[in-house]
Amino acid sequence: MEHEQQGGTRRRALPQADAPGEPLLLLPKRQVGGASAVAPDPSSDPSRICLPDLVQHIAGFLTCNEVACVLRLVNRAAAALFSRPEDRTVRLSLPVPHREFAQRWGGRDAVHSLTLAQRRLLPCLTARSGSIANLEVLLARGEAGHVLEPAVLGAATAAGHIKVLGWLRSQGCAWSADSHAAREAARCGHTAMCEWLVANRPAQSCELACEAARGGHVGLMDLLLRSVFGYSPDTSARLLKAAAEGCDLPTLQRLLHTYLDSDHVDRHSAEQKAAVLAAAAASPTPDWRAKVKCLEDRGFPRTGADCSAAASLPDWRARLGWLRQRGYRLTSAALVEAAGGGHVEALQFLLAEGVEMDAGTTKRAALHAAKAGHVAVLQALSGAPTFRAAALADALAAAAEQGHLPVVAWLADVLRLRARTVRVFMSAVRSGSLKLLAWLRAHGCPWDATVFAEAAGLGSEEQVEWLAARGCPMGEKGEPYLSALRHQGLDLPPLQCLQRLGCPWGPTGAVFLCALERCQRPGAAVSDRTALRALTWLLVQGCPVELGVVVQRVQAQLGKALAPAERAWMQELLVRLVEQQHRRD
C-alpha cells in the first residue's frame, strides 16, 4: 500500500518507438460512421495521433495518481510509455480519481488481502488525501471501513484538511486530542488548521509553535507564539531546539536574544543546551555550520549527541568530518543512527575511528537496520571484531514483522537453528506478506495454534485461508475467534472466514460472551446495528452458548440506565435469545 507523497512531475526521456520514424499511437482507434465507413489515415487527422513527447508533456500537468490510474490505461502504448515503478504506483495519501478508487476499494472483498493494520491505514491515507468522496466509499462498507476511528480524524488534522475533519465529526467520528497529529499539522505549515486547533485548545499554542519552528515555518511560529503567555525554561529550551533544527540563523539568533539575553540569569541546564546544539548539528538547513558556531560562541556544551544524529544524514561524511575537526566526540549512539539510516560507509568509518561497539550497541544497531531493511548494514555489523550472532535474534523478528524477506533470509542463514522459532513466524504474519510466510515454511520455520490465532486477529483473511490450506493448527479452544473479537471487534467477515474454514468454537459460551462483552464495555465504538447483527449471526451459526446464562446477563444489563438506542438493541437481542431457548427446549 504505497503512500509516499510525490507530485506529478515531468517524465524522463522517451522510450524508442516501435520503428524509426513511426509514432506510438496512445489513443484507441474508433470507427467513424457506419459499419462500412473507412477509418481515415491517422496521418491525415492530427487530433487522432498523440505523439509520445506530446503525451509526456500532457502527463506533466497531471497528478501521479491520474497517470497511474487513467493515462497509462489508455492502451498498451501508454502503458509502455509510463512503465516505471513510480508511474505504476498509486499513492493513497494523494488524491485518487474517484471512479478508480471506488472500483478498487468499494467491494466486499477489496480488503481481503489486507492485515488489520493495513485496513486501518487505508482510511487514514484517504483522509490525508483530502477526498471526502473516497472516504464515503469506505464508509459505505460499514464498520469494516474503520473510517470513524480517531486515527482517521488525526490523519486529516495532520494533513491540514479542515473540511475532511468537519465531515468526519459530522459522521460521528469521536474527537481525540491527538497531539501528534496537531504537531504534524504545525510542522507541515498548515496555518488554517493550526488556528482552528488553537481556537479549540489554546493551551497547545506553545507546542505547535515549536513544531512550526522545527518545520522551518517562521511566520506560523510567530503567529502561534502570540497566543503564548509565560515561559518556563523547559518551554523556551524546546523552542530553541526546534529553531536550531528547522529555522535559519537569523531566526535562531532572534530567539536566543528573546529567551536568553533578556533574562539576567540563564535558567537552562547544560543538558538542555547540549540538545539545542545537537539539533543544529543535524539541521537540514544550508547554514547549519553557522548555527553550530553561533551556539558554540554562546558556550553551549559539546557532546557525543551532536555527532550521533549527523551520522544518519545523507551528507554524514562532511558533517562528521567538520564536527570532528572542532573537537566533537564520536560515540556508539552514532553507530546506531548510521545503521538505522542505512549508511554502510558511515558505519565502517565509525568502526575504523575506534568507536566501541559492545553487545548492547550491536543489538540496537541490528534492530534499527533490520526494521528498515538494510541487509548491507547487517553484513557490515557482522564483520566487527566484537560481533556476536546472538545479538541478532530480536532483529530477525523485527525484519519479519516488516516483511523484509532479504533481511530475514540473511539473518536466518547467520542464526541457523536459532532462526526457526514460532515467534519469527508470528512476526511474519503481522507483515501481511504471503511470500515471506511461504519462504519461512519452506525453510522449516515451525508454527502452532498461536500463529493461526495471531493471523485471525491481526492478519488478513487471505493469510488465514493460506494457513488453513496448509494445515496450520487452529487449536480447540476457539482462540482464533477470541483473537478476532479482541482486535477487530464485531466485524463479521473475519468471523465468517473462520467459521467457513471449520475453526472450532471452543468451550461453550466463550466466544459468544466475549462478543457480548465487546458490545458492553465502556467506550466501545460499536453501533447498535452492528452489535445485534454480530450476536445474531453467532446464534444462527450454532456458536455454543449457555442461553440461560446469557439471558440473565442481558436482563441484568437492561436493569441499568442505558441510552435509548442501546436499550432497544438489547431488548431485541433478549427476544431472539428467548426464541432460541424455546427452540432448544
From TrEMBL:
<dbReference type="GO" id="GO:0016020">
    <property type="term" value="C:membrane"/>
</dbReference>
<feature type="region of interest" description="Disordered">
    <location>
        <begin position="1"/>
        <end position="26"/>
    </location>
</feature>
<dbReference type="GO" id="GO:0004620">
    <property type="term" value="F:phospholipase activity"/>
</dbReference>
<dbReference type="GO" id="GO:0071944">
    <property type="term" value="C:cell periphery"/>
</dbReference>
<dbReference type="GO" id="GO:0005783">
    <property type="term" value="C:endoplasmic reticulum"/>
</dbReference>
<dbReference type="GO" id="GO:0030149">
    <property type="term" value="P:sphingolipid catabolic process"/>
</dbReference>
<protein>
    <recommendedName>
        <fullName>Ankyrin repeat domain-containing protein</fullName>
    </recommendedName>
</protein>
<dbReference type="GO" id="GO:0046513">
    <property type="term" value="P:ceramide biosynthetic process"/>
</dbReference>
<dbReference type="InterPro" id="IPR036770">
    <property type="entry name" value="Ankyrin_rpt-contain_sf"/>
</dbReference>
